[in-house]
Task: inverse folding
């Protein structure tokens, strides 16, 4: 997954329209190193559509608008490519964030339960 795809995914997840995203970026008035000016709306749309390479100096502004840390834009530990994952990846990310607060015995219990579900699923597939 490309960074622009990840940005679009997060926008969809947070229900941010492209038009609103572009307006928020421009309102922050980021300056491009090459021109010293704020990118135009058209340029930002091209970033979002993958028609233009994203400038690294825009990453902090994009992260601010999306309310994520900058590293999240480059993190691809959960596959976002299909509609099924699109529906469930937000839940999976929330679970991953909450695991920090869960005691070790509970994590072991969760793993045991999930392994049972996996086995049930695998057995069901084999029967087909």
Result:
């Amino acid at each position: 997954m490309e960074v622009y795809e990840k940005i679009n995914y997060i926008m969809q997840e947070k229900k941010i329209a492209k038009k609103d995203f572009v307006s928020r970026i421009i309102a922050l008035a980021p300056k491009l190193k090459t021109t010293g000016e704020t990118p135009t709306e058209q340029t930002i749309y091209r970033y979002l559509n993958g028609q233009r390479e994203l400038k690294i100096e825009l990453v902090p502004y994009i992260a601010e608008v999306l309310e994520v840390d900058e590293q999240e834009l480059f993190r691809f530990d959960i596959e976002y490519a299909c509609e099924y994952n699109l529906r469930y990846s937000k839940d999976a990310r929330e679970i991953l964030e909450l695991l920090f607060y869960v005691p070790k015995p509970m994590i072991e219990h969760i793993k045991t339960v999930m392994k049972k579900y996996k086995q049930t699923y695998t057995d069901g597939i084999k029967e087909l």
Notes: The radius of gyration is 19 Å. The chain has a mean pLDDT of 86. Residues 5 and 48 are 8 Å apart (CA to CA).
